[in-house]
């Protein structure tokens, strides 16, 4: 179980602009894993890219989300098409040892919450 609860909302300012620029991830760490969670309403697994970059000096978790939304309306006389898009990129430093990079899991549930689980090595 995670050691902290998921919650919190963007400020009124963030709510006024695209959510993509204000996506906030919460990090929880237990004896078994490091877990990141965020609300990403309207995004699917296909809209998200999660990777761990391993270099000599650091190990980084990179999360990229992209939203492209198109809305068309027609009232019989005129038609309107609006397009909105947004992207976020989050990068978090991870420990160099004690995590199982090959077993990272990312899931998006039906409520638009992404959960990224990075298991820790046992022992």
Overview of the structural elements:
By secondary structure, the chain is mainly β. 4% of the residues lie in helices and 50% in strands. The protein contains one helix and seven strands. The longest helix has 5 residues. It is elongated.
Which characteristics define this entry?
123 residues; 3-stranded antiparallel β-sheet; 4% helix; 1 helix; mainly beta
Task: Trace the largest sheet across and list its strands.
Answer: 1-2-7-6
Ends apart, CA distance between termini: 19 Å
H/E series, N to C?
A: HEEEEEEE
Estimated helix fraction: under 10%
Q: Helix count, per DSSP?
A: 1
The low-confidence parts are 1-21
Largest sheet: 4 strands, antiparallel
Number of strands: 7
Topology:
Layout: H1 12-16, E1 26-29, E2 33-39, E3 48-54, E4 59-74, E5 79-94, E6 105-108, E7 113-119
Antiparallel strand pairs: 1-2, 2-7, 3-4, 4-5, 6-7
Provide a concise account of the structure shown:
The protein is mainly β. The chain contains 1 helix and 7 strands, in the order αβββββββ.
């Amino acid at each position: 179980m995670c050691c902290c609860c998921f919650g919190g909302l963007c400020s009124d300012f963030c709510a006024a602009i695209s959510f993509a620029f204000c996506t906030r991830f919460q990090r929880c760490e237990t004896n078994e894993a490091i877990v990141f969670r965020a609300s990403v309403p309207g995004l699917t697994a296909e809209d998200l890219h999660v990777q761990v970059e391993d270099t000599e000096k650091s190990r980084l978790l990179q999360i990229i989300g992209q939203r492209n939304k198109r809305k068309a309306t027609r009232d019989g006389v005129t038609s309107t098409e609006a397009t909105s898009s947004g992207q976020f990129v989050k990068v978090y430093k991870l420990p160099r040892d004690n995590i199982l990079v090959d077993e990272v899991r990312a899931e998006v549930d039906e409520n638009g919450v992404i959960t990224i689980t990075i298991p820790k090595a046992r022992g």
